[in-house]
Amino acid sequence: MSALAIKPKHQRLVLIVFALAALIGAVLLAIYALRGQASYFYIPSEMVAHPPASGRAVRLGGMVEKGSLKTMPDGVTIHFTVTDGKAAVPVRFTGITPDLFVEGSGVVADGRMDGGTFVADTLLAKHDEKYVPREMKDMVAARAGQTGAPKP
Amino acid sequence: MIAELGLAVLWLAAALAVLQLVIGALALRPEGQALAGLVRPVAVMQGVLVLAALAALITLFVQTDLSVKLVVENSHSAKPLIFKIAGTWGNHEGSMLLWVTIMAVAGAFVALIERRLDEPTLMATLAGQAFISLGFYAFLLFASNPFARLPQPADEGQGLNPLLQDVGLAFHPPTLYVGYVGLSIAFSFAIGALVTRNVGPAFARAMRPWVLGAWIFLTLGITAGSYWAYYTLGWGGWWFWDPVENASLMPWLAATALLHSVSVLSSRDALRAWTVMLGVVAFSMSMVGTFLVRSGILTSVHAFAVDPQRGAFILALLAIDIGSALALFSLRAGTVTEGARFAFVSREAALVYNNVMLCGILGIVLVGTLYPLVTEAYGVKVSVGAPYFNPVSAMFAFPMLAMLAVGPLLRWRQDRLAGARAARVAWPVLACGALALAVFVGVELFAHRITLLPALGLAIASGLFPASLLPLVGRNLRRTPLPVWGMVTAHAGIAVALFGMASESAFSVERLAAMQIGETQSVGPWQVQLGAILPVAGPNFTALQATLETRYAGGSPVTLHPQAEAFSNPPGTRNESALETRWNGQLYTVLGEQAADGRWQMRFWWKPFAPLIWLGGALVGLGGLLALAGRVLSDLRRIIARDKIAWRRMRQGR
């Protein structure tokens, strides 16, 4: 009965310490893991100036350059170039492209650098009028501000 | 006319909420006793009125009243009826009205049904419920009026996002919302108990069915939403760690912890302050979720209704509600006396362990969800996905699930795993552990490419399933109480779902190909032949439909029809997958675009045992339902018995 011999007050203290230790441990673990696992968002000029480590998961956002889109003989692999007007990054993607993915429109790609090519796992394009990836909306807004155009 | 009526009724309901708060608070004082009888009718009336407002909005959507702004922005006359109705909550204003409706109706139910809670605590609870409702009424009436009219009626509505035009919309959001908002009852109970300092087993027994009810809806809502995203997005995934998915997972984790700690409080009068705290945390997580969804500060596939100004409003609400609850807690927690003691090896200790682990997972998900917001404040944009969430949450989830094998077998207060108890508890659990180990070694030996996490998942699920049935061993099954059946079903459901998740990620086979008509491709044990691609017309879309002849391991052919659908109101497309479910898995087919050379992009997955994910989720919900039915039935029996005794006494007295 030794465990029951302690006072209720002490038991409460033990529980609080245990819970706090676990919670703080969880948060520290989370922050430690996030530093390694969060994928950073790049635009092409940043990507060219400071390329991420090969194989690290990152996101790339920009415009699909006109005339750059090519389909490979297997019919499902595409190559295209993402640009922000200052720099360009070649991208390879295997899969079914999202709707409204066309040359000249914006795209956000999840993937990693492999040599000089960005290998995309998923492509996010402007899905419809209401759902636009937020990074892309910011990008479009920034461009509109530069050119003085009222709306894209 | 209906719109004005709806708005008027909504204002009236808000006024009743003010009344409910004021008289509920006054009734707590001795001089306000006379008002106590009013609180319940006011709460019920408030629920009825809000229900009428929601009915008014649904009517407007069904009629496609094009003078109402919300209808114009989100509906279209050519939409099928079910999506006109479901479209009512497929937008910001409508979903907030649904939120307030459920909140008020839940309050009305408490006022109608709850008889076990002592009267002062109930008054405080209803006042608390009115207090949090009021914030959302203000939000609805001042910042997102669903009944606003346009100066000029529009010619036609703008329609609903095609991805939302699915039966899923009719069931998933209402179910999830009942769960989210149902937790407000737990929150109000916690506040009520803190105000009256009446935290004890009776309070826990009164609170338990409400928590259980909300938790069942949350479980089913999350399960249904996962399956909806799985078949409608055409990505072949069932959980994306999207902020909005996390927003539903966090309240579920907190509610699951609350459910277990409430059972400790009601059975053993321990974990008093902790249970109250969890009641506050669970609904706070619901509100944080709403904030994340409604403010649009995080990118999400659910971002169909975003508005930063409204985000600020909800943030303020969040601060007021959670802040005042926490302030009340810190003032009163010290006066909540310690509960009963328990030993290190006991049911209570196992449940404490479960609670702490669940809270750990909750912390991990919360930090991961908010991390992009924090870094963005420093100008760095990041996104956080499965590479973070899967392994880090598993570090807490797997140890928790290991304990799940033994916890339900332990005795309350103190247990010793020696002698007869060793034969009853230790050996069977060790046998299950050995099975898990065998599965793990087998997977590692025979399937090299499987990563650690799915292999561990398969092993733990295989050990956990038999272990979760152990509480039934040695019982007379006919006399086993329903709550025990519920617990066993829910725990087995967790094992089943885990097995499905691990199997899906370990054994899925994908095939992506550009196919000519008549060509055959194989994916896993399946042969898939592309028969034809023909245009078809739906009620409000046109589509290209592929005809696929599929054979499992040379068996008889099954025809599948995946579609690529094009909507015009609003313009949008959707790749509707076609699925073939077998006992051992699911074939998933998607039709893509036509390549320049005339071939068609097709994507196939063979996902062994993937349907177990949702079957497991449904079992967990069923377990909750059984437990709830058991509690409610025994309550009814008690009430009937009490009435009979009272009646006999009365008769004998004569």
Account of the 3D structure:
The complex is a heterodimer of chains A (152) and B (654). With 152 residues, chain A is of the alpha+beta class. Chain A has helices spanning 8-37, 44-49, 134-147, and strands spanning 39-42, 58-64, 70-71, 77-83, 88-94, 106-114, 117-125. Chain A has two domains: 2-37; 40-147, OB fold (Dihydrolipoamide Acetyltransferase, E2P) (Beta Barrel). A five-stranded mixed beta barrel of chain A has the order 2-4-5-7-6. By secondary structure, chain B is of the alpha+beta class. Among the domains of chain B are: 1-165, no CATH class; 416-507 and 613-625, no CATH class; 510-608, no CATH class. Chain B contains 17 helices and eleven strands. In chain B, the strands form two sheets. In chain B, strands 3, 4, 5, 6, 7 and 8 form a six-stranded antiparallel sheet that branches. In chain B, strand 5 (541-552) and strand 6 form a beta hairpin. The model of chain B is unreliable at 300-305 (pLDDT under 50).
The fraction of residues in strands of chain B falls at 5-15%
> Termini separation of chain B (Å)?
59 Å
Specify the number of helices of chain B.
17
What order do the SSEs of chain B take from the amino end to the carboxyl end, as H and E?
Answer: HHHHHHHHHHHHEHHHHEEEEEEEEEEH
**How many structural domains in the coordinates of chain A?**
2
Q: Helicity of chain B, in percent?
A: 55-70%
Radius of gyration of chain A: 24 Å
Which percent range describes the beta-strand content of chain A? Answer: 25-35%
Mean pLDDT rating of chain B: 89
The most extensive interface between chains reads: A-B, 48 and 66 residues
Largest sheet data of chain B: 6 strands, antiparallel
What is the succession of H and E elements of chain A? HEHEEEEEEH
Name the structural class of chain B. alpha+beta
E-strand count of chain B: 11
Low-confidence stretches of chain B: 300-305
The total beta strand count of chain A reads: 7
Number of helices of chain A: 3
Which shape of chain A, going by the Cα principal axes?
elongated
Give the termini distance of chain A in whole angstroms.
75 Å
Low-confidence stretches of chain A: 127-131, 145-152
